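Duplicate of earlier report; Glutamate racemase input re-posted below.
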Amino acid sequence: MKNVVLGIFDSGIGGLTVAREIERRIPGVSYVYFGDTARLPYGTKTASTVVNYAIQNSKFLKAKGATMPIIACNTASAAILKTKGANKKISLIFKNSKTFNVIEPAVEAAKEATKNKKIGVLATPTTVNSRIYERLLPGYKVVSVPAPLLVPLIEAGWEYRPETKSILREYVNPLKKAGVDTVILGCTHYPFIAKLVRDMMGDKVKIINPAVQTAEKIELFVRQQKAKPQGVLTTRNYLNKLNKYPHRRFYVSDLPKGFSKQAARFMGHPIKARLI
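Output:
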């Protein structure tokens, strides 16, 4: 896969948690990022609406040169997994490319992490209502808590404001009462406040960051692709050589200045998002 270009999309800055992990693990890979800030948040919309957004986003990323879709949004991932044929439609946009979501890798990690088979999920209302985690975790007690206020607070840069801590405490209380030993951050925005969740839940509770798990899966897949007919991509050095000068482009559907400022702070390097 000589010209792999990842197409990453989310409702806003949340997908940057995936992008940052990808940069760490696959420094030579190029990607195009789209934050659909004009239609944020996705988590309070119907699954059918979110699927339509995901298809539109995929077409945009394909037009910008992306070759492999990364659904870096739990709400969109849940809606697509729940909707028959949705994943196939996105795959066909990218010429039958492998499609990655952020839910299945996190579920796998949670299964490995839990000792008492009680798994908590903090997610948006649409993700919780999809019951996708319950479907993917049969035989486990899944405690899903909708947390609609967190995404707007994180988008506003209020991660560590007292108001955010107070609201988050209300959301994690049901998880603590249920005795879960593992919590899935069921929205890619939530790793921005992972430390707060960890502090409130305690050291004995395992926190699953979907961005880390998803990036691991993407790295493994990319490294396993055939670089040429007689060879297989097996080393990071090859990836670096493959894309010696990786291109990373960022697009948003609204408020590019605000997005660029927050994105640069989080990613650790300058970012200039373009308005579509």
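The chain has 13 helices and ten strands.

Merging into the original ticket.
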